[in-house]
Amino acid sequence: MSSKQKNLSSHKEFTSKHSAKFKVAIAVSEYNEDITFALRDGAVKTLLEHGVKEKNITVQLVPGAFELPLAASWLWEYKKADAVICLGCVIKGDTDHDIYINNSVSTAIMNLGLETGAPFVFGVITPNNHQQAKDRAGGKHGNKGVECAMATLKMLELKFDLKK
């Protein structure tokens, strides 16, 4: 469903049975920080509300969206995270720069998950303008950080259940 039609952060009731055991890292782009920090805050709040211990949440700032995959890889490796959420905001400009960044970052994040078997969650919003970004960072369309936290918890629960 189109974001024009609903709050994308709305989700069915979900209970994480094992969240107290999960270690989650969050890589956050400093570029467009008014947006990305709102995404970060939504993700952290959601993880805590669903039982992830504060000591098991690591937040790391990175310069921009392009740096997210490498930082995510390091967080997984050095912080021994079970999952990594990558949060950024690339606003369309006058050139095609955003297309190259978004394609590269999304592909790299997907590949990290496939290579490691761990959830690497793509939380880079790609709006056409700053207002659209605000609408997706706690505005009328919800908060993509919340969505990413929920996706992370659901994937970690799935992995935990499948390993039994």
Describe the structure.
The chain has about 160 residues and is an alpha/beta fold. The chain has one domain (about 20-164): Lumazine/riboflavin synthase (Rossmann fold). The protein is built from five helices and six strands, in the order βαβαβαβαββα. It has helices spanning about 35-50, 70-80, 95-115, 130-135, 145-164; strands spanning about 25-30, 55-60, 85-90, 120-125, 135-140, 140-145. A four-stranded parallel beta sheet has the order 2-1-3-4, with helices on both faces. A two-stranded antiparallel sheet has the order 5-6. Helix 3 links the parallel strand 3 (about 85-90) and strand 4. Helix 1 (about 35-50) crosses helix 5 (about 145-164). The radius of gyration is 15 Å and the shape is globular. The relative contact order is 0.22.
